[in-house]
Write a structure and sequence with these properties.
about 525 residues; alpha/beta; 7-stranded parallel beta sheet; 6-stranded parallel beta sheet; about 15% strand; UDP-N-acetylglucosamine 2-epimerase domain-containing protein
Length: about 525
Amino acid sequence: MNAEAVDHEVEALMLALTQEYGAAAQTPGGVCWLQVHYVPVRRLVTRIVRRLLTRPEVLCRSVPAGPQDFVVAVDSAAVGYVMHDATETGISYLLGHHPEEDKECVSADDGAVSLPPELKPAPVCAVSWSSRHKETLLPVLLELADRGVRSTVVDLATEADQSFPDQLHADISVLPTPTEALAHRGGLPAQALCHAYGGHVARVGRHEVSVARLARLVSKVLVHTSGSTQPSWTAGVKVEAWLDRVLAQLRAEVLLCSNDTSPLGVLAVRAAERAGADTVYVQHGAWIAGQVSWRAQHCRHIAVMGARDVLTARAWDRRADARTYVVGQPRFDVLAEADRRRQRELLQKALADQAGAAPPSIVVWACQPVREQRLRDQLDVLMEGLRDTAGPWGLVIAPHPAQSTAAFATLLDSVLGVDVALVGPEVGARGCLAGADALISTSSTCGIEAVLMDVPVLELALSSDRTLHLARHGAAQLCTSGEAIAVALTRIEATPATVRVPAAAKDSICRWDGHASAAIADIAVQALAEVHSSE
């Protein structure tokens, strides 16, 4: 299925949804429901579009007796994420073959959330709910602390391994969100979409979809909470009120975040704006062309990794006064200190222990949290390429931090003819790529780290997989088949000098001078100065 065709249809549906029902409900802070929950709603709409584009005709079936779910949660390959999909009944409902049901309007829960404790004022407030945010923001906060700037981290994580570490510096405080805040269940107010009947239709492929029914269907995603990545409508309202009180007590003047697009990020940025604080976004991972096709950035200051990200940032920002800065990646500041010898020994030991041998050449596969079938397709192509190389290569599989190693159990059982090992997520690609002879990935940010450290990169591009387009910048070898992988690895063995990446290409992808944390701290300090000058 053509990814661009899917994106076009999704964009049209989201536009229709926004125009007709985007303002149907607002948080007490004045943020529209679809602005807060745009990301999970769009994910569901994307799944619906894919289903409709492959559906040759409308099948009119009899309506099953009893209540039927329109939307269900489905397994996700990413730890901490829950995906949703429309059921056949839900698809039938969208196409007009299922009766309207008033009971689907779900009222919000009015349970209270604990007030925050008395907080010591801090000019900088950061929000974090994942290990990626922590790794990106912590170096910046430590830099600010060394300059005497206090900060408080609002830790919105619902899983222990994603939490922000406490007591790292006297001038960095960590404030966990009350457990009950994100545990609340409840969808949009009962009256919000109860008028959503009839109205306009939108065409998807050969089908006509009722926009009113689409609004009612996607609102089902807002009823249940799925931790920090996808809070319910009620949980979002509770968190918003809690954030308002926190920011008021902190008297924060600058908010730092690494996600201002997902529900909690949107709520945090809008809370900061109401409190009169400036906002700074720090890019925590590589941006992929086509990954976002709406104005998703809410912060005023946007710190990006490389020159190529500037145009993307300008296309995504919502604010007319947004400023973009090319600074690099804070967590890459320490790459120069990576112990290549130790990481090489780690790779060799993993292969020796798990495969019984450690070949002279080793490639690391930096995985992404995708479904098992996609992983299997990628692994099959990798195996084909590795078996056809001129010399023996070993493969070390490095799961994404949001990925469970259990996803690879059945895959490894079918591996034949290649020495393969699996490292745990606590190591990941970041913990071993410096010791590799090559790295292969579709869209892992570790591909950028490898480029910066002169580890040759193979960019795997199968069917509809989106990549980081490193090959377009001369920073990777594009591989669309097993044969291409074999050719690339043979080239790395035979003529390593031919795969070196020019300095200009590296800089375009990610500035790397070891001072990204300091550069972002400068942005925050300048923002503080501007707030003071305007008082």
